[in-house]
Each structure stands twice: as C-alpha cells, then as structure tokens.
# Entry
Amino acid sequence: MKGEKRVLRFYPDQDAALTTYTLPDQEGSTMSARQYNGVKALIKGLCANYDKSTGLCLPLDCPCPQLSSYSLICRYFKEAVLPADKELCAEVMGTGGIKTCAVCSKPFRAVSNRAKYCKRCAEKVRRKQDAERKRAKRVSSVCI
# Structure
C-alpha cells in the first residue's frame, strides 16, 4: 500500500453525489483502538459540527467521516476539538517528544516539556515523594 492513496468514499444520502476524502498516506498514521475510542468520545461530546440526534456532520450534511476512519481527516476536529484532551492529542498528532523515563529507562511520549517519567513510574515516584515530604513534616512538627 506504499505510494498508493487511501480513499474513503460514501454517499451521504440517497440523492447525494459520492463524497470522497483522501486519507493521509503517512506510514503509521492510523490510530490504535484506544485512541480511536477517545476520538469518538471527543467528537460525540465536544464537536460543534456533530449532531448527536442524527449522527451527522452539520457542514457536510452526511455521517461524520472522522467517526468511520482510524486516520485524522477532519481539519476542524484536529484544530478545535482534539486539543481539549492534551494527552490524546500528543499521542495521535505526535506532538510532545519521545523521552526516556528516568526510573525504568523506557521511552514514552511526553505530553509536556517537564515530563521525566512514564505514566507507570510517575505514580510510584509521586507516592514516594509524598511519603518523604509528609515524613519530614511529621519529624519537624514533633521535634520542637
């Protein structure tokens, strides 16, 4: 499928002309099932162009093409809706660099420039730091 353009075609309704979208031809541009479910939830919850009662995209007056694709094809969704979930945006769009976890040395996608730990290690480190801070506070309050 390299070099070949992927096309999504459908008829919005019985009397309409064929609607065609050319999907991105980037290698690895498809989303995982978890990311796709997150995208669907964002569209159904936050997209101003999505009509919940009919399931149609209002500007296109047809079923939302983004809901039927594992690639990002809707410019409005990419620019206005997806940034609402920063973590999903970083995963899907590839923003935020790939960093190495300071604890387990595994690569992870950083959502911000301050990230030092992967999700699993971040929770462990936060608990450890909380315990140390609380322990120090107890010691300082007892030794008056």
